[in-house]
Amino acid sequence: MASTTTMGKGSLDRGLELFNYLARNKEASTADLVKALGMSRSATYRLVERLHEDQYIIQTPTGQWRLGPSIARLAMAAVQSVEMMDVAPDLLRALAQQTRESVSLGVLNGHEIVFVYRELGPQSVRVSAELGARRPLHATSIGKAYLSGMGEHERSKLMRELELTGHTPHTITSRARLEDDIQLSLKRGWTEEHQEFDLSSTCCGAPVFDHAGHVVAAISVAGPANRMQEQTGTFGPLVAATAAAISRRLGYEPRKSGAEERAV
After folding, report:
1. 199 with 206: CB under 8 angstroms?
2. Burial, 176: exposed, middle or buried (Cβ in 10 Å; 0-12, 13-18, 19+)?
3. What is the mean pLDDT of residues 182-187?
4. Bridge partners for 117 per DSSP
5. Cα dist from 262 to 146, 158, 172, 253, whole Å
6. Residue 169: Cβ within 10 Å count
7. Domains plus CATH for the chain?
8. Angle at 71 (CA atoms; ends 67, 72), nearest 5 degrees
9. Residue 40 in contact with residue 2, Cβ under 8 Å?
């Protein structure tokens, strides 16, 4: 039976307790976790199996549990987003005011983009998503923007791992077509997504680079499809300029211009 300290706690609370315990102790057996969490053995096994499935924890050759690569990716995303929050919000607010549409900032987590900042547009009908929401790389302008900012070898490797799920009839589900779309975006200076994730929305995006020239985030402007379809050519350069301004604040100094720099 669970102790009074864990009675009434949900799986999120218990998962966080497990992460904190492993962070302090580096490794632990399942028996150690049962004792530390005050949970039944069966409940602990279910929690461990679920976290292991998504690689939040991994098992060593000796059977001990330790924090896994998914936690490392979350930690990196958190570091990036904290630094980003020091330099990006005023520029993203200005972009939302210019376009009157919703603006997002996202960072990579595994094979998805996670929204870490949202600036909603002032219009009564708008596109919105909760902070922490995840989006696929291949079917969103913000995801394709992140891919466009990667080096060719790194992008090719990641794209081989992606599951190109069709979310709407417009989703690109061919790796060759996706690469062609990204190459077009590199020449144009921004990405576009026309009802590829959601039939109700259209977006444009651009990557953000750090001082070393590595892509660390992407931004997008999104709005209802019937309003945005004719605006991507106007909003795309604004998105690209905003992403470039954020990158400069992070210390990025491109040695080459536009697509040529990002394709390196």
Report:
1. no
2. exposed
3. 95
4. 105
5. 11, 16, 22, 12
6. 8
7. 11-67 (1.10.10.10), 72-262 (3.30.450.40)
8. 100
9. yes
pLDDT of 258 reads 46
Per the prediction, the chain carries an average pLDDT of 85
Task: Give Cα 176 distance to the centre of its chain.
Answer: 23
Distance between CA atoms of residues 148 and 218, nearest Å: 10
Query: Any residues with CB less than 8 A from the CB of 186 and at least 6 apart, and which?
Result: 148, 258, 259, 262, 263
- Quote the tokens at residue 175: 């790796």
123 vs 215, which has greater pLDDT? Answer: 215
Closest CA to 90 of 252, 246, 248, 236: 246
Please determine, for residue 157, whether its predicted confidence score (pLDDT) is greater than 50.
Answer: yes
Helix orientation angle between 89-99 and 232-249, rounded to the nearest 10 degrees: 170
- The residue with tokens 């989006």 is 135
